[in-house]
Amino acid sequence: MKKITLALLFIAITSYPLSAQNNGESNLGAWYMLFTTNQVSEKVSIHAEVQYRNYEFADNFNQLLLRTGVNYNISDNAMATFGYAYITTDPTFEEPDGEQNTTEHRIYQQFLLKNSVGKFKFSHRYRLEQRFIDNPLSGNDTQHRARYFLRVTYPLNDKWFLTAYDEIFINLQNEFFGQNRLFGAVGYNFSKNLSTQIGYLKNDFRVDTFDRFQIGFFVKTDLRKKKENVD
């Protein structure tokens, strides 16, 4: 009996890392991102972004996210957005034959507030999402989700800055907790319209936790027509 117990314990211990590795939890993945804000009037701008996500640092596709939205600047410290996103996801770390991606069409509404305390700059983002998911295995599904995002940024000088955020995802149906993202990065301002952030993300789900390297570029453009001087 003792030998059987030890054998079962050995199997359990040795099989656990294998199961963790199968879903990519033990691998450092990467998110490569581009965010743009395009001003079209004094109050209105267009948001557009691309995120390419891998299960591993430079290989093994996980997800492609394309998102756009119309921003309305209520004030310098408040903004409302209505938008749409398209997402295609490889649901597994491994690549079985005949695997098909999950696709999602998403509508979202969000409200952003900003404030400062000394040199620390805070932003609070409240987002609602309506998700229309097509899973080749389980069929179509509609889900609703709420998200709260808190970012703090600290400027080191005119060029360099530190930033961190935490975002919690709440399902508005079964399984209340969705996920939590904790992120820290160092950023650099190339100019007032171009910056980058390089950092690390800890992505916690109900069961799994994933580590992700992130690099993002942030671009601002002004599409408003310049007023011509008239003599």
UniProtKB/TrEMBL annotation:
Signal peptide positions on this chain: 1-20
The entry's keywords: Signal
Pfam families hit by this protein: DUF2490 (PF10677)
InterPro entries: DUF2490
Listed name of the protein: DUF2490 domain-containing protein
Source organism of the structure: Dokdonia ponticola
